[in-house]
Structure to design on (340 residues):
């Protein structure tokens, strides 16, 4: 495991001077921090498999702190889908105003998520959102706290290992290949803009509704019948329709304008957070399902295909077919029983 904590600063797309200034201020300050290695890469979401920035990230060992212009949940699962795995590192950095907001109420019992696939390395990945503050100090303070946390955890594990160490057996073997090194200008090679879904496997229950709904071949299943984004670059730019039909809000489009779809915590697409005024004829908020169908039809027509409306790939509840009732069904039944 690496003795230093790697801090990766992911640049914002575009050339916004205020964002560049914040990135440069943080990077310059961290260059002098003990126990830290600092690297800068382009926007995480745009890094393709052949980009040097992506290959650099794949070769990292040890704990990692990522500062990006994405929600922390989105950044973590984006890294996971790219094979950069680890345990989710809890941070204490909260955007202004978060302390005043009420915690969202839990509705019913959540279905079990399938969780990440493969072996998870013995390290933590911390993700910080550069949109939370417009000055470097809060980020520098949190990086220092995380570095100290990682050092303490590493020291405790070393002590435990030493206490239970078996006799040392010296073996001769082949030297391991050193990690590939990249020059800073290689890491910052321009990356083309991309658009594709990211699956949060801490929420995904493998219901496959996204696979049924998407008609562009984006989704598939792996050898274990787990949902994956199989052909992510076939996704239609700006279309988040599959995210709207996901019952667990497990599908993230990190750069979408809505926090619920972009990976924000506590935000909802529409699911069980019901505006009761809509049930009684008030309100004018768009139905997430109707929006999803409209978005999908628009892209089908743009592809020269016929629109399908609500005839293909809708969740069981919306098609009226028999299926186990969830909390929304129970709420509607309760309202019916009251004669309202």
């Amino acid at each position: 495991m690496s003795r230093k904590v790697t801090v990766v600063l992911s640049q914002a797309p575009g050339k916004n001077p205020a964002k560049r200034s914040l990135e440069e201020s943080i990077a310059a300050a961290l260059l002098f921090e003990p126990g830290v290695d600092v690297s800068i890469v382009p926007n995480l979401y745009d890094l393709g498999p052949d980009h040097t920035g992506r290959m650099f990230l794949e070769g990292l060992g040890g704990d990692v702190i990522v500062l990006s212009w994405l929600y922390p949940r989105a950044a973590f699962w984006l890294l996971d889908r790219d094979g950069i795995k680890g345990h989710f590192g809890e941070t204490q950095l909260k955007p202004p105003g978060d302390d005043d907001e009420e915690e969202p109420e839990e509705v019913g019992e959540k279905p079990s998520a399938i969780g990440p696939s493969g072996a998870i390395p013995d390290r933590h990945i911390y993700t910080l959102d550069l949109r939370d503050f417009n000055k470097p100090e809060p980020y520098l303070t949190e990086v220092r706290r995380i570095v100290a946390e990682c050092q303490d955890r590493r020291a405790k594990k070393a002590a435990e290992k030493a206490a239970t160490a078996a006799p040392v057996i010296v073996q001769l073997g082949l030297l391991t290949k050193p990690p590939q090194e990249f020059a800073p200008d290689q890491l910052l090679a321009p990356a083309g803009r991309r658009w594709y879904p990211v699956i949060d496997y801490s929420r995904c229950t493998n219901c496959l509704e996204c696979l049924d709904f998407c008609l562009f071949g984006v989704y598939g299943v792996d050898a274990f019948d787990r949902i994956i984004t199989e052909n992510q670059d076939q996704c239609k730019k700006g279309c988040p329709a599959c995210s709207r039909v996901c019952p667990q809000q497990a599908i993230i489009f990190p750069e979408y304008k809505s926090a619920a779809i972009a990976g924000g915590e506590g935000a909802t697409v529409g699911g069980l957070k019901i505006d009761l005024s809509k049930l009684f004829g008030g309100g004018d908020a768009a139905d997430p399902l109707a929006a999803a169908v409209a978005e999908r039809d628009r892209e089908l027509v743009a592809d020269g295909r016929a629109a399908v409306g609500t005839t293909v790939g809708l969740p069981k509840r919306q098609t009226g077919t028999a299926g186990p009732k969830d909390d929304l069904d129970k709420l509607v039944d309760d309202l019916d029983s009251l004669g309202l």
User: Anything to note?
Assistant: The chain has a mean pLDDT of 84. The chain has two domains: 5-162+183-187, 198-326. The CA atoms of residues 184 and 311 lie 51 Å apart. The longest strand covers residues 5-10.
